[in-house]
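Structure tokens please, single chain.
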Amino acid sequence: MDPTPKYARVMRIASPQEDDGWEAVPREKGWTSIEKKPGKHMTDDALCVSLCPMCVSYSLCIFALYLVRSTSTSSVPGPPEPLTKNQRKQMARTAKRKEEKAAFEAEQAARLRQHQRELERIRIDEYYTKGAGKNTSLGKKKQQHGSAKTPTAKAGLNEHGQLIWD
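Here you go.
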């Protein structure tokens, strides 16, 4: 059973708009455009007329001409021009510099990694020869000092299997 008939539709009723007494004033000519002058419009008159035959301002024609020229002068793939001798030299020099730079950076990175490994090895050695790592289970054993809470005697078994403290 469809529950929608139980609900009423509510529509928003718009109130009539009141007239506030203000009217739009038409723009004066000359603030945003330059009027066309007959005969001296553009050097590319035919193109302008074909683009915007109802054009009344010089700026609109310029804009339309700009749009057409920018889209029509897009890169058209054609045969590449042959490189001059100087261009070939420059390209070879640039490629050589790039190879030298890559080799230098690779050598520098290898030296840096080796240096970091040496520093890490020195830090590890220092950690275990002095400081906190000296008395760990990996380094030297702690010397036990006698105290009342820890037994100093060692336990052992005799020939009858009895526990004996030494």
